[in-house]
Design brief:
Layout: E1 5-8, H1 14-20, H2 27-32, E2 37-41, H3 47-51, H4 53-62, E3 66-76, H5 86-95, E4 101-106, H6 113-124, E5 128-131, H7 140-153, E6 158-162, H8 165-168, H9 173-180, E7 184-189, E8 191-195, E9 198-202, H10 208-215, E10 223-225, H11 234-247
Parallel strand pairs: 1-2, 1-10, 2-3, 3-4, 4-5, 5-6, 6-7, 7-10
Antiparallel strand pairs: 8-9
Length: about 250
């Protein structure tokens, strides 16, 4: 079975999305490009959009796309407790009929919280994937500790492996892949190049390093396009990378 290719709406850029009319407006683009699904970003919503999640979910399904839901929040609070909004975020993902809810890790310090997390996930019946973000908690060491604790607890929480974010934190993407690959359930595809005093996301096909990194990650998990998709013909540029990721 061909791997699933997801397009992250934020790949089109905030200004372009606003000009087009929001995240719903790019669904025809993503569908016409041959992608399998769309990652909806909560940070791009208005409060009215949150109330209309079931309608958006129906629109996504009408375009024959799968839905994923990403919220710009951490699973764990600064004090190590579970995010008190987790129930609400999982309900939002369910209203969207999303395959999963994606969060960043946050300050994971207490393995006992995973028992509570198990109960919450069972109650809401929505899978969770946890991403390495660009905060200190997204570094390899905290992600490894979480991975190990999840394995000990036999908890069905997978990782989102963001290929480029490691560089923002001074970690090696290749080393991270060696340690985390068995737990990866979703790959956020983006390359990164130096920019001023930091990094910026770019398409991954210009440097063979990123293709090699993809080869070291699970071949059968969905891949999400999170690098910039720019140009006059958004269908064409999206289709190009959808095909590239299917074949790579």
């Amino acid at each position: 079975m061909a791997r699933k290719i997801i397009v992250v709406t934020a790949a089109y850029g905030h200004d372009r999305l606003q000009a087009l009319g929001g995240q719903r407006a790019v669904l025809p683009v993503i569908a016409a490009a041959g992608a399998d699904g769309v990652e909806i970003r909560r940070e791009l919503f208005t409060p009215q959009d949150i109330d209309a999640l079931p309608l958006l979910g129906a629109d996504i399904a009408q375009h024959s796309l799968l839905a994923c839901y990403s919220a710009p929040e951490a699973l764990f609070e600064a004090d190590g407790s579970l995010n008190p909004r987790l129930h609400a975020l999982l309900r939002e993902a369910k209203a969207l009929n999303a395959l999963w809810l994606k969060l960043s890790l946050g300050n994971f310090t207490q393995p006992t919280t995973l028992d509570t997390l198990r109960a919450i996930l069972a109650e809401c019946n929505v899978p969770l994937v946890v991403e390495n973000d660009q905060s200190e908690y997204g570094k390899l060491a905290p992600m490894q500790r979480f991975q190990a604790a999840v394995q000990v607890k036999n908890l069905s929480v997978r990782l989102t492996f963001d290929m480029g974010n490691w560089l923002w934190l001074g970690d090696s993407p290749e080393q991270a892949a060696r340690h985390l690959a068995p737990s990866v359930g979703y790959v956020h595809v983006k390359a990164a190049v130096p920019h001023h005093n930091g990094w910026r996301a770019v398409p991954p096909d210009a440097d063979p390093r990123w293709a090699a990194l993809l080869q070291s990650l699970p071949n059968d998990v969905p891949r999400g396009i999170e690098f910039p998709l720019e140009g006059e013909d958004l269908v064409a540029v999206t289709r190009r990378y959808v095909h590239w990721l299917r074949e790579e």
